[in-house]
Amino acid sequence: MRKIDPAEYQKRLDRMTELFTGMVKQADRLSQTRCPYRDRHDECTAAFRCRNQGVVAEGRQRQGCGHEGKLDYRSAWQSDAAARQRTKDRVERVKSEAAARRRGNGAKADPA
Q: What's the CA gap between 53 and 45, in Å, rounded?
């Protein structure tokens, strides 16, 4: 087996570092403007509604991503405040019912 020249080895490591540094810088620049849910086919992969979602093009499975990189995509995310509140209320009701069962009276919590 041939002996490894430390200087040559370091030279190769430096070249790889140079290559990866450029890739990381480009990825960092893109991450600030490109929607992270847009795939390489310009389709939206998000599992939630977004105002940038377009129509499903013929022959495609997903909606198109209408984000063109000129806006902060994060403002496009929509959340259903009413659904979130219903879920919070249900969790609290379940907690109350469980606490009542642990106390031994088996009573259900007030659904209000």
A: 10
